[in-house]
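Example record

One chain of 238 residues, shown exactly as stored in the release files.
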Amino acid sequence: MKIVAMSQSNYIPWKGFFDLIHDADIFVYYDEVQYTSKDWRNRNLIKTAGGARWLSIPVATKGKFHQKISETKVSDKDWAKRHWNTIYENYHKSRYYKNYSKLLEETYFKCSQMDYLCNINYCFINVINNVLNIKTEILNSKNFDLADGKAERVVKACKDCGATTYLCGPAAKSYLSDEMFERHGIRLRWKDYSGYPEYWQRTPPFTHNVSVLDLIFNAGPKAPYYIWGWREKGMGIR
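Predicted structure tokens for this chain:
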């Protein structure tokens, strides 16, 4: 059995993004699609004393209505310094901040030198995969011969990866169906993001839909438990 998952890259994604990667044998960055503004591609939430707060990477969009995520460029190189300062302000007193601050500060500096949003996203996701000890093989849709049609592209990419199962988030239910995959001998399985246990956060109320950095700084080496470990405990699942 080979499980394949695909997703557009996000900036410092929430824990569910890494749950999806962990559950797959192959994960494909799907950035050869149109960039969407006011989405998760260039921004995410962190927890502050005043509630959830957006961290957004400024990108060039004027006159670029049909640009792909892979073509989207950063428009202000000072974003990384601002974001890291905000993270420090809100997390430096967290229990495990010192365990990961050097690695993440270096990652922010490295990403500040990058021109393309997708490369920044890949960099952070790969670093966080290492922190969470995720061993899934990562591929990029730019290296595939993509078919025409939104759904057809996904099916063909799965076939090219040798997938027996395609694991997908519920947002794709509007254009994917079991029948499409069954014709190619692939099972379509929907990812369930419900039931995550709460972990300690500095201020109530508890917020699930924030960047995984919140979980890492507050739970440290126990972070994988709050993503997939709670579900797999005692079940003999990898």
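Notes: The chain has a mean pLDDT of 94.
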